């Protein structure tokens, strides 16, 4: 099983490095087909922190961040995170597994169809998006989809969108990991497993950076998103059994 997990983490890291989105979106639904969802959530948060940290080392990421958007989103996400912890720790495992699959399918489907809702971007909308992201962060590890859709609806240019997403996801993921550690949701075995999988994360990330220059952005993203729809649908079917 360890070899399979190494492969999933490596592929997820390569996809994140090449496209700039979704280490957790790729890894979490795949891992829930094999392992208990609570383990998957904590594990993907730990490794996702490493993935977003590697992306933050890039100078272009730090240069293009829209800090005026990151701040309100992150602060409002803090209010939702305790609710997500409660869902993860005390909610039915099947519910967590189904939520991961549904969020994956919904996000990938919206991205593939290029549907963009119209939003005015007021403080209440920003706070609502951050709050929802906070709940999803600690309950499913998928804190990115609500924020990604919101930024796209706001018309963020590609570089500004990617940089803002990377920094927000890093902050939200780091806080989620801290809350789960304090709440006893991340034990020594899970931390040890994350450490064993870290080399696959680094290798996959390096491969994704190397491949990115020779790939069509839209074509590669479409392939990844189509794969996510398939995996998410399998996850929904598995959770309903």
Description:
With 241 residues, the chain is mostly helical. It has one domain. The chain is built from eleven helices and no strands. Helix 1 packs antiparallel against helix 2, helix 7 runs antiparallel to helix 8 and helix 8 runs antiparallel to helix 9. The two termini are 23 Å apart. The mean pLDDT is 88.
The helicity comes to over 70%
- N-to-C terminal Cα separation, in Å? 23 Å
Shape: globular
Q: Classify the secondary structure makeup into a structural class.
A: mainly alpha
Largest sheet: none
Order of helices and strands: HHHHHHHHHHH
What Rg do the Cα atoms give? 16 Å
User: Uncertain regions: pLDDT < 50 for 5+ in a row?
Assistant: none
Provide the domain count.
1
Counting DSSP H or I runs of 4 or more residues, the number of helices is: 11
Supply the key terms:
11 helices, globular, mainly alpha, 241 residues
Question: Outline of this structure?
Answer:
This protein is mostly helical. The chain has helices at 2-19, 23-32, 37-56, 59-63, 67-90, 93-113, 123-140, 144-153, 158-182, 188-212, 217-240.
């Amino acid at each position: 099983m360890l070899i399979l997990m190494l492969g999933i983490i490596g592929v997820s890291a390569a996809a994140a490095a090449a496209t700039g989105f979704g280490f957790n979106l790729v890894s979490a639904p795949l891992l829930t087909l094999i392992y208990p969802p609570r383990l998957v959530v904590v594990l993907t948060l730990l490794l996702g922190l490493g993935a977003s940290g590697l992306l933050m080392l890039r100078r272009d990421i730090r240069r293009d961040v829209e800090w005026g958007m990151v701040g309100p989103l992150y602060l409002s996400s803090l209010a939702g995170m305790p609710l997500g912890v409660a869902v993860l720790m005390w909610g039915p495992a099947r519910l967590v597994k189904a939520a991961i699959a549904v969020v994956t399918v919904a996000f990938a489907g919206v991205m593939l169809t290029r549907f963009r809702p119209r939003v005015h971007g007021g403080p209440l909308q920003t706070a609502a998006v951050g709050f929802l992201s906070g709940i999803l962060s600690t309950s499913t590890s998928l804190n990115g989809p609500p924020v990604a859709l919101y930024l796209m609806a706001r018309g963020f240019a590609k570089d500004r969108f990617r940089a803002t997403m990377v920094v927000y996801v890093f902050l939200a993921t780091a806080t989620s990991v801290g809350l789960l550690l304090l709440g006893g949701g991340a034990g020594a075995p899970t931390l040890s497993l994350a450490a064993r999988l870290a080399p696959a994360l680094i290798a996959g990330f390096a491969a994704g950076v190397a491949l990115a220059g020779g790939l069509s952005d839209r074509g590669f993203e479409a392939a990844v998103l189509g794969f996510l729809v398939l995996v998410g649908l399998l996850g929904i079917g598995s959770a309903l059994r």
